Amino acid sequence: MDDNLAVRVTGLQKRYGEKRAVDGLDLAVARGEIVAVLGPNGAGKTTTVEILEGYRRRDGGDVRVLGVDPQTAGRDWRARIGIVLQTSNDLAEATVAELVHHFARYYPDPRDPDEVIDAVGLREKARTRSRQLSGGQRRRLDVALGIVGRPELLFLDEPTTGFDPEARHAFWSLIRGLRADGTTILLTTHYLEEAEQLADRVAVVNAGRVVAVDTPADLGGRQARKAVVRWTEGGAVREERTDTPAAVVAALATRLGTEVPGLQVLRPTLEDVYLGLIADAEAAPAPATAPDAVDAAPALTATEAAR
């Protein structure tokens, strides 16, 4: 195991009956980085993350999280990870302070609960019952519960679903602060802007496989990042893909005059690149699949996962 890797996944497989939810997935996450996992519904993101968290058994492949196989990990390993689920409504009558202090007792070396409450911006809500919090405040409480154990690795599942723009940006600032403190973060999200703002690298998953991994700026490669210069000439719309749009525009201005009719310079967004990668992956022939390692195993129950 590379000591610099918080997560290493090789050839991961998970099957439900005849459906291969995860089909030979490979992924590596370095310590201290934020990796965003993107993909359409049914791509295998949630199943993969549940396997990494130790909540679901795999059918094949090798998985190491903080140097340990999650499928056989014990309490000591579980104290080293933090999990923020997409939804949670536990202990709705307890106050923010009561919950954070209560969860801190589960860990051998927790952060100071009051410092955690301050870090997530809930000091003014410390005596408020969790059921009375707004969606954004409840999400901050979820993060507080996820980080109070001082995790080395934090899993965030769709963390800002339902947030208004102001709450989303405030939450991003919180996540950046955790990264600055050295926490490794694996993030699943449907918000492309969120991945672009937070992630050091983005992994695109489709049909149970990682089809691309790179920084948000370089995802898809140089060809996917070419600008498109579009203009009207001779009554027809024309366009050219280029690495040097300024030179193309200058040439057009020389030929057609200072005002180039219908001139547009379009640069692909992360969303454009992501959609292109998914379309290419779905159009490609299905790769040969490895033979099943074992029959599909059921998900671990909460009690099993806690052992």
Automatic annotation (TrEMBL):
Tell me which Gene3D superfamilies the record gives: P-loop containing nucleotide triphosphate hydrolases (3.40.50.300)
InterPro entries named in the record: AAA+_ATPase, ABC_transporter-like_ATP-bd, ABC_transporter-like_CS, ABC_transporter_ATP-binding, P-loop_NTPase
Q: From which residue to which does any coiled coil extend?
A: none
Q: Which GO terms describe its cellular component?
A: plasma membrane
Q: Which GO terms describe its biological process?
A: response to antibiotic
Q: Which residues form the signal peptide?
A: none
Q: Which residue ranges does the record assign to the ABC transporter domain?
A: 7-232
Origin: domain of life: Bacteria
One Pfam short name: ABC_tran
Its recorded name reads ABC transporter ATP-binding protein
Please tell me the species this chain comes from: Cellulomonas triticagri
